[in-house]
């Protein structure tokens, strides 16, 4: 490995928010030779990213509602399995129909998966039980899909380690408190460090990756960000009763997912709408509801001990005031260029999901590079970041050509 830092093309970008989206963007832009500063008010991934189920969606959940999102999940989950395999448990998933009504949608579900390039295949219930002995033996139909589990922290941490090796400045426990603007252009970002020091970080462009806080960050720059926080509760049950990602073979709803994570099964989720950025907490009713629903999929979960319950909010793109609006809201993401509102060099990225963080970053980086007149192409679909463990090792500066690629070494 070379001790030389990657040659920066001279452009400076400040990323506001260090969840999975902001971290993936730091890696993507650093690979393009741009000098990146990533600012996060807490620990990296301490927002929604550190609190989700960790389901690496193959897209089957979305196939009947939105084939484009389902296809994107299939493409991105396949890519992440090659880029960051050490952070993924490639366990596979089963969709189970527990009654005749759920079973009646099976053929339509499989066809929708195939339309989205997801290799779903029906199994006999006996074969499904061989794969997942803990599943409800009274299931009526079963479909295998390539769902997987991933570590909510370690996957973005690999990107963070890669960005750091390429010279990105990573500021955790540092809050964005203002945006410097001159002649309608972003010139810098004002931050407050944990020790009380203020600093103005000069930049040519800034990207708001603030998740459910995106509207608050936008207000610092005087722009309106349409983002709708949709909180939901999650419950962790001790032990690995189930080894596969299990879902109900019904249109997406509450309490229909079970994700194995380390020595736990995570039950998700509920969805409500909120007007602010939280904090959010699970209610006693949500915990009881989620446990009951999970026990329908895996009967052993009825008596397994509770480990923890918590809540987090999805940063849905757009304005959704009611629960029904929120359920209908697309799980797609949006890159906003606020130049059209008179603020050049300021961008926001909202919506999406953790599974497509790399694709979200690519699209945001393309918009920022087009604005700055930088023609470096995206490399994040090709170049493997280092292990998340590198984040805790002494800094070893690298060049882009020092990394391995998904097709083998450079
Ligand atoms: C209950 C639930 C379950 C989910 N399950 C899954 C799943 O299984 N699979 C999946 O793919 N997706 C899942 N998702 C979706 C996924 O979690 C989110 O889409 C994703 O984590 C959003 O990442 P983000 O980086 O955009 O936001 P965040 O992770 O929230 O990052 C935004 C960051 O901005 C920081 N910030 C805010 N204000 C400031 C400021 N002034 N200065 C500096 N920093 C600031 C915050 O601290 C935060 O860390 C789930 C979501 C929920 C709610």
Summarize the structure in words.
- With 410 residues, the chain is α+β, with helices and mostly antiparallel strands.
- The protein has two domains: 12-48 and 153-226 and 331-409, FAD/NAD(P)-binding domain (3-Layer(bba) Sandwich), CATH 3.50.50; 90-149 and 229-317, D-Amino Acid Oxidase, subunit A, domain 2 (D-Amino Acid Oxidase, Chain A, domain 2, 2-Layer Sandwich), CATH 3.30.9.
- It is 26% helix and 28% strand.
- The protein is built from ten helices and 22 strands.
- The protein has helices at 20-31, 67-83, 100-103, 106-115, 125-131, 154-165, 214-220, 284-297, 323-328, 357-372; strands at residues 12-16, 35-39, 55-56, 88-89, 93-97, 121-123, 141-145, 148-150, 169-171, 174-182, 185-193, 198-202, 205-208, 227-238, 245-248, 257-261, 264-268, 306-317, 333-337, 346-351, 404-405, 408-409.
- The strands form five sheets. Strands 6-7-5-15-16-17-14-18 form an eight-stranded mixed beta sheet.
- Helix 1 (20-31) runs parallel beside helix 6 (154-165) and helix 1 packs across helix 10.
- The two termini are 13 Å apart.
- 52% of the residues are buried.
- Residues 1-6 have low confidence and may be disordered.
- Flavin-adenine dinucleotide is lined by residues 16-22, 39-42, 46-49, 52-55, 57, 175-176, 209-213, 217, 232, 234, 268-269, 312-315, 352-355.
